[in-house]
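Sanity check

After download, print the first record. It should look like this:
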Amino acid sequence: MASSRKRNPKFKVNPAFANAHGLSEVSENLDPWEKLDRDLVSSESPSVQVGNAIHEARRSGKLIVSNAGLSSVILPDVMFDLRNDLVKQYDGAMDGDNFWDCYGEEMLKVVDISDNDLSPDRDSENKKSPPIPAIPAILDKRIGCYTALQTLRIRNCNLHGLPWDVIQSLTNLSVLDAQGNAFTAVPLWKLPESIVTLKLANNSIECLGNDISMEDINLQNLVHLDASNNKLIRLPSKLEAPKLQHLILAKNHLESLPAGILHSCRKFLVTLDLAGNQLKQSMNLSQHANLQVLELRGNILKEVPVIHSNLSRLGLSFNDISSIEGLFPILDDCDEYGKTKEADYFRSGLRELHLEKNDLGSFLDSKTLAAMTKLSMLDVSNNSLENLPYIVGYLSGLEKIILDGCPMRMIRNSIKYKESGGLDTAKLLTSLRNKCDPPQAPGYYGSTFEEHSSKKVAATPPSVIEARSIVRKATIGDCTLDLSGRGLSGKLIWTELVDALVAVGDSDNEQRGNVVSIWKLSHGKITDIDEDWVNALPSLSIFDACRNNIRNLPKNFTALSLQKIEMQRNCMTSISLRDQLCSNVGSNLDKNLMHLNLSNNQIDWIPGDIFNFPVLAYLDLSHNSIKSLAWEYDDDLEEGRGWRQGLPSLQHLDLSNNSISNLGYLPLALAGCQYLRTLFLNNNCIYEIPLELGLLDQLTSINLLGNSQRRVRVKVLTQSCHKILEYFRDRMTPDELRDAVENHREIREAIQEETGCVEDALQLMRSKSDDNNEMKREGSVGGKDTLRSKNNGNHQLRSVTNVREEDTNIDLHESKLVQ
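Expected structure tokens:
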């Protein structure tokens, strides 16, 4: 029984409880437990939430400060300096973790600032003071320090814009999510070329470009564009997005769509949503073979669009369409059942057709419906239809018909309803079939056309059918040709699949293999790859053939413009690496390769031509049989092997788990890799660690454990990268430190030279390396009598820092090393 006691607006709180939790003993109109919950929630200030997010970002590389109570476009300083006070915080902690081996701001992959009200006039809304002119809320320009950023989310932040010049400089940015803000314009030409997903829904955007500019807007990698629920009137006339798959522009004020963007994305477009606009003219989408969903509801169209036979869902509700004739112009040259002059039958793959609330007359075009043999749902409600063609009854896949609001005078007696209230589609179809015999054409309910056909068509071999199915899947979505896990062995020769890739597509005169960008061959027993594959897949950007037995690659492999190669756990040797990947200087592969993984192969020396990749950022040669990195040049063969200067874009180098005993010029050569962040030399046979590694202060992670050396204790090598490098510098005498800094400077200057740089740099490294070895033989390294005092050490470290700051102005990308 419910209590009839009235709730007292005043609550008496236990004095001890109130004192412990900072509450008053009497609280009016507020339950004490509610007030306690409110106080506990408010106790976690934005600074605390940001601090927790920073701690997690150092570990995961993802800075998530969504719904953190941030209230200004000037974000906290700590978000742009993740390593601030980190050494002091963990100083002396030895629990096995490398605290400095963390993500810095320049290494972050994901930043999420969503659900924070960053509007500058947020606090003045409830004040009685005179209104202050609104200041546009533009996000903090310091986000430019996130140079490796791939995903930026700023949903529901009440922002008016972004620092677009800074956004343009984020060359790795692939996802930009700015939904639910107050943007009025977005300059698409200032987006980086790397952008893949752009979400701008629920803003106040009126334009996405500047029509006054005559320059083309090319978003070569854009796959997903969502600008729904805005105020768009038009799109840039010169916007091109050839890889666009999903274009969502619903709930805007568009009257037309530029022909240029529709033509540029004809090969990949999968979804086109233009619902709720002001479109008047129909569009021709007959070349969009991959288009699956077309939504045009809520416009003022009077004619149906021209569509491809592969379309799966067509939404035309709430328009002024009077007839469906014209969806497939090819039917003009066919008979009533879609038979062409070549005795073939045209069939559509359409499964859903929505025509609710249009201006359809007394009947539907029977010839158009006859081609929809796979139709499963037909909605023609709220029209003026009086009859349905009998052919509708023979559409074998039709499961649901919606006729609400239609007169249907001619078949009123055939319309039956279920006890649950819905239309009984099965009985309606049976009634329509009773009007006429089954048509003698393929694809209809009860048709015996195949049995009585006089034209005998040869059966397509199952292998060809399988190959065509694989290619069909590879030309939609992410355009991946996935042959992994199929048990392929020996030399890869699959004639049917190669033929299907070389075959010309239905909608253009281009071979289907041109669309494929990713090729997966992992988990097999492949030993060789035929050259025909390279000709069939000329547009590849990613090649994944890990966990095979590949010994040789095709001779024309370097013609591919690959950006990423994954070939770990194969049988590649140093000779095959030299001849098949590094031989053709200036090839497409040389110019584009950014990621190379050859771990767990049979490589025992490094070919000199591997240093000709100017944009290579990731190199993994771990778990091989490399014994020495000493540079050797054979005048007779005119080739070198070992490690030399080069790879100016290198960020990650893994040489772990080899048998390296001689590092050669590596410590000096890496001085030219200003972007290098990770260096793994663990589990080798290094007897003496070069102290020059301490000058590579661009590193954020270094691993030297598991080697044969005894000079540096394991306790030191398990500390942070910063402390390891500092330890190496402290073990050098002032003269050694000065000479090493000068050596690094001279190496960089030699690398910068446009002519003769290779020989000069090699000669210089050779001489500096000999000088260092001579000094080590004299026993000047590591002796207690040569250790610097603390003050001298600090002075030398400051000198190193100053030298490094001067050297950061050197632009190594302007130099082209050619041997």
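If your output differs, re-run the checksum step. Summary of this record's structure: The mean pLDDT is 80.
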